[in-house]
Design brief:
With about 375 residues, the protein is mostly beta strands. About 5% of the residues lie in helices and about 45% in strands. It has a single domain, classed as TolB, C-terminal domain (Neuraminidase, 6 Propeller), CATH 2.120.10.30.
Amino acid sequence: MKKNSVPLIMAAMLLAVLPTAVSAHPKMASGTITVIAKGLNNPRGLAIAADGSIYVAEAGSGGKGPCVKGESGPTCFGLTGAIARIHQGKVSRIVTGLPSVAGSNGSESSGPFDLTVAADGSMNLTIQGVDRATPQSFGKAGALLQHLVRVEVGGTPHAIANLYSYETVNNPDGREINSDPCALVTQGTREIVADAAANDLLAVDATGNVSTLAVLPSRIVMGPGGKQIPMETVPDALAVGPDGAYYVGELTGFPFPVGGARIYRVQPGNKPTVYATGFTNIISLAFGPDHSLYVLEIFKGGLGKVDPKKPASTLGAVIRLAPDGTRTTIADRGLVAPTGLAVSATGEIYVSNFGVFSGAGEVVRITP
């Protein structure tokens, strides 16, 4: 079954977590956290443009409908998704009116998840879907859900590829039909998409043709009561390595084992191989200028252990995996449900913080 979409998993644990629970940004052993943007609605993926501007995909806060049944009540559609730009200390929403589906308080938000920015300022972005729903569930306005979308400079968003349709026709992993396009990178003339619910890595060419690069495998893990159960990968994080290969991080599905998330190396034409193990609930990946791989964990203590009465259980972490395999925790305290990661050419680290909260989202800069 494929009910492990990213919004569904996060919503199951976070509805009662207050963003003020751990709001300080303390000095850490390896650096400091500085807020550079606040007041964002469910900020997710980040992209750094050539001029140093930071672009943020905001999943939005839903709207008045149409609505479908969610895990905790109705989740309703609205055009509250956006792309924000942080430039020279100023934050502005440069694209608004993007599809968003969320609960009445902005929770369970699905919408813009990740983006890339071209040299000419045009952008491509993934827009998530909703479990047990299709783009048609929300009428004409919801047509861009579960799509790869392009926004030209000064233009309106338009679909490049319907990833839900591709999943429906091809279903590469042979499981339940579901699509939740998440991480996105540009390589040459192609956009590469990690589809978390479909458990695959897709390529979209310049004409919108979609092809499967890899299917990420499920595996057997220990479940509740000591019973072995299958766990899906839920690939939601993606980066291109210095070697040109794709590195894919898994959020993992139920039972969300602590230390159970892997990073796969994907070389097109070959089966995915395990590059690194021992992470927990990976949500984003990025390579730094020193060729280290930076790994963002949304909950370092595990999704299954998130407790609103225990603020420390909502903390994430940034971990640096050096080329020689050395691991260093760069930041953890002060990162509350972080969802997006980018590393500049000079090694500065940017993270979407409070990434599953409407109106309380931030972007922070971490100085190692």
